[in-house]
Write a structure and sequence with these properties.
By secondary structure, the chain is of the alpha/beta class. It has four helices and five strands, in the order βααβββαβα. The longest helix is centred in the middle third of the chain and has 14 residues, at 49-62.
């Protein structure tokens, strides 16, 4: 079975597209010597890192990062379902792939009256993609 691979839509536009460049860029915004708190959720901006990286870095620096994330973002492109779940596959990012928790994603889609499993809505959308470099850091 072929893995659904979500390629970067905004690498080299919203953030550095090379692994070393991205690590260095995110590192400018993330503090490692700050006391972290346990949070059940955060709100982080989703613009290009040159515009929103400082705020996103402050957010991700302050919380203990869990093993599994549920990322929620808008559909700027209008492609696909208006409320969609990327239910299986991997995000192919400059600093490595991130696997989707298919069981959890399908459970969310199955319990929602609004969300449906739809890969199309995620193909060109940047709002979740720009969170992943901070999660991977």
């Amino acid at each position: 079975m072929e893995i659904m691979l979500r390629k970067p839509a905004v690498a080299d536009y919203f953030y550095q597209g090379s692994p070393d460049g991205l690590r260095e860029q995110v590192g400018r915004y993330v503090s490692t010597d700050i006391e972290r708190i346990k949070a059940i959720g955060v709100l982080a901006p989703h613009a290009g890192l040159v515009y929103s990286g400082a705020v996103a870095g402050a957010v991700y620096s302050k919380v203990t990062l869990p093993e599994t994330f549920i990322l929620i973002g808008p559909n700027h492109t209008g492609l696909g379902a208006p409320v969609s779940v990327f239910s299986e596959g991997e995000w192919d990012m400059p600093n490595g792939r991130v696997k989707v928790d298919a069981e959890l994603a399908r459970a969310i889609a199955g319990q929602s009256r609004y969300a449906s499993e739809d890969y199309t809505a995620h193909t060109g959308e940047h709002s979740l993609e720009v969170q992943i470099p901070f999660i991977q850091y």
